[in-house]
């Protein structure tokens, strides 16, 4: 949950800023550091590079617009609230990144709050939250969470502008999570309905229809060669395919690469030795099958039963152990 919460609202937080005079003084002592440079970032923009001066010691002074930033050590991120006049000192062990962050000096209260917030979010039971059956139930749960977060924020004496930024982020969080849950509800309505068919080009030759796989469970991976999270799932998918290769289940990967990347797709399948049934969607995102499932982000996984009915329109990823639990239960 911590990564989800951090990346979801970094843009909103960083775009609200306040100007002041003076400079920020920033020091850090980092054990087991991941690199020789600490980066202060505003999303993709590097605001400041701080080079190591000694055995894990970093130090710099610089002007900055007041607002939210990210500290990047070359491997992991943490949130920062910076304003001119702050004199921050950080101690951290990069091998235990989030858990070890401790700030002292002027500005420490706000940044220690952020560090603790990340730890708290990582322990939050998001799965229980999204297990709600209705939007009303979900809204009640997320509202309760927000009230608790605001109470924690108000319990500490913090910079008023920082508090305003955090409360704005909470409002954005609620709105975006409700939007996400609404999409989940739409997907759930497809479960236990007859799946739409497809008739796509098969990398091995010819074309393949969903009806060709009747009598087997069909686990579908909608992906593209340019999609990093899609590629990250490939090793797990290959292990799943190997485990169930002699079972009554077909593994189908449907590429939504655009026509300009058609040759790239063909080459990628060969180079990465992708298994299963490799298909190419005829009109990428506008293919009827893709639109029928409301797919607007990837990777997306779909599980269909031997009769062609949808078991799960938003199935677990190969990297999630729950997928194997479900497949084991279905294939008994």
Automatic annotation (TrEMBL):
Keywords: Cytochrome c-type biogenesis, Disulfide bond, Redox-active center, Signal
Gene3D superfamilies cross-referenced by the UniProt entry: Glutaredoxin
Leader sequence residues: 1-19
Broad class of where this protein is predominantly found: other
Taxonomy, superkingdom: Bacteria
The keyword RNA-binding is assigned to this record: no
InterPro entries: AhpC/TSA (IPR000866), Thioredoxin-like_sf (IPR036249), Thioredoxin_domain (IPR013766), Thioredoxin_ResA/DsbE_sf (IPR050553)
Residues covered by the Thioredoxin domain: 189-332
Compartment(s) where it occurs, according to its Swiss-Prot or TrEMBL record: Cell envelope
Protein name per Swiss-Prot or TrEMBL: TlpA disulfide reductase family protein
Species in which this protein is naturally found: Flavobacterium chungnamense
């Amino acid at each position: 949950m911590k990564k989800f919460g951090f990346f979801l609202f970094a843009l909103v937080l960083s775009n609200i800023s306040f100007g002041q005079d003076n400079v920020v003084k920033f020091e850090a002592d980092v054990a087991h550091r991941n690199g020789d440079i600490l980066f202060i970032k505003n999303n993709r923009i590097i605001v400041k590079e701080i080079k190591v001066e000694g055995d894990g010691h970093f130090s710099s002074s610089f002007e900055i617009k007041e607002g939210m930033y990210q500290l990047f050590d070359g491997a992991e991120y943490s949130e920062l609230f910076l304003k001119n006049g702050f004199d921050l000192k950080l101690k951290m062990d990069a091998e235990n990144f989030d858990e070890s962050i401790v700030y002292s000096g002027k500005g420490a209260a706000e940044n220690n709050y952020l560090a603790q917030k990340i730890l708290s979010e990582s322990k939050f039971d998001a799965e229980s939250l999204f297990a709600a059956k209705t939007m009303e139930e979900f809204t009640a749960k997320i509202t309760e969470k927000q009230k608790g977060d605001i109470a924690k924020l108000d319990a500490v004496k913090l910079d008023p502008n920082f508090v305003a930024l955090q409360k704005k982020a909470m409002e954005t969080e609620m709105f975006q999570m409700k939007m996400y849950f609404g999409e989940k509800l739409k997907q759930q309505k497809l479960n236990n309905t007859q799946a739409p068919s497809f008739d796509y080009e098969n990398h091995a030759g010819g074309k393949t229809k969903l009806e060709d796989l009747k009598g087997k469970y069909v686990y579908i991976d909608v992906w593209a060669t340019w999609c990093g999270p899609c590629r990250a799932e490939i090793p797990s998918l290959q292990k799943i395919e190997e485990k169930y290769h002699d079972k009554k289940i077909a593994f189908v990967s449907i590429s939504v690469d655009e026509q300009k990347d058609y040759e790239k797709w063909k080459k990628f399948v060969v180079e990465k030795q992708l298994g299963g049934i490799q298909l190419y969607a005829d009109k990428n995102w506008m293919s009827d099958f893709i639109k029928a499932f409301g797919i607007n982000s990837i990777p997306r996984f779909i599980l269909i039963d031997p009769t062609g009915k949808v078991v799960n329109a938003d199935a677990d990823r190969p990297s999630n152990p729950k997928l194997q639990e479900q497949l084991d239960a279905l294939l008994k």
